[in-house]
Amino acid sequence: MNIAKAMDGKNLAGSIETAIRALSAVSDMSYINSVPSIAQGNAKTHAIGLGQMNLHGYLARERVYYGSEEGLDFTNIYFYTVVFHALRASNLLAIEKNETFEGFADSKYASGEFFDKYTDQEWVPATERVRELFTGIDIPTQDDWRALKASIMEHGIYNQNLQAVPPTGSISYINNSTSSIHPVAAKIEIRKEGKIGRVYYPAPYLTNDNLEYYQDAYEIGYEKVIDTYAVATQHVDQGLSLTLFFKDTATTRDINKAQIYAWRKGIKTLYYIRLRQMALEGTEVEGCVSCAL
């Protein structure tokens, strides 16, 4: 999902339900009998992975710094809202199809244990800015969770797995989005695209007025990236592709410190580790960002 577009639409519930239904339909219609083990797994689990992109683009457009208190607050409440509506959509599918994923009866959904963290405490925006951003969007309440818990314990859910946050590298460019939920790699990214040659990708919504909100991943540092993924992780049942960015002066000790920090924050897995190069091979571009802008 494009976070900016989803927020602009003011109908997160409808957008998420549509996405879950679409992904489930692809799973149901996939003909993969040439690989029997995969076909069997797909038929038993109906596993899907709803992803997200354009977090940094949205935050910068709304003049919120990535990894700030407000940035983390938004990420937390956004993913909190997503998991509720994803489960609700899967519950509706289970009712309509009279079918759950295999093994549901032995899951924490069936026992109700999964819902404790949502029914035992109130999840609301902690900052005024995030309350403003969610104006007109319903944030699930504890009573909403209790009602959903009762329905799921009675009828089940259709999909064993619902969410996964991929890198969205290529598709984010054609959607005018920042990749995944990590910061931009550069305010204006220069890529070498096959026979086309050098291609320039300005960050979405970038203007002279909001330039300061587009600190790139190398400037921001690993702590704020990991903090952002950590608040999202608590609402995502599968993995999140977390890329760490370092300047080329980084040592193995720096990388090890980041890995330990990620582990302490409850990060499930790490993806790539990228080092900033002075110039992308094949582009011979070494100009400063301000000159490029």
From TrEMBL:
Origin species: Cecembia lonarensis (strain CCUG 58316 / KCTC 22772 / LW9)
Biological processes, Gene Ontology terms: deoxyribonucleotide biosynthetic process
Enzyme class: oxidoreductase
Organism ancestry: Bacteria, Pseudomonadati, Bacteroidota, Cytophagia, Cytophagales
Protein name: Ribonucleoside-diphosphate reductase subunit alpha 2
A Gene Ontology cellular-component term: ribonucleoside-diphosphate reductase complex
PANTHER family for this protein: RIBONUCLEOSIDE-DIPHOSPHATE REDUCTASE 2 SUBUNIT ALPHA (PTHR11573:SF30), RIBONUCLEOSIDE-DIPHOSPHATE REDUCTASE LARGE CHAIN (PTHR11573)
Domain Ribonucleotide reductase large subunit as annotated: residue spans: 145-167
InterPro entries: NrdE_NrdA_C, RNR_lg_C, Rrm1
Gene Ontology molecular function terms on file: ATP binding; ribonucleoside-diphosphate reductase activity, thioredoxin disulfide as acceptor
Record bears the keyword Transmembrane helix: no
EC numbers: 1.17.4.1
Keywords: Oxidoreductase
Family: Belongs to the ribonucleoside diphosphate reductase large chain family.
Tagged with keyword Acyltransferase: no
SUPFAM superfamilies, A to Z: PFL-like glycyl radical enzymes
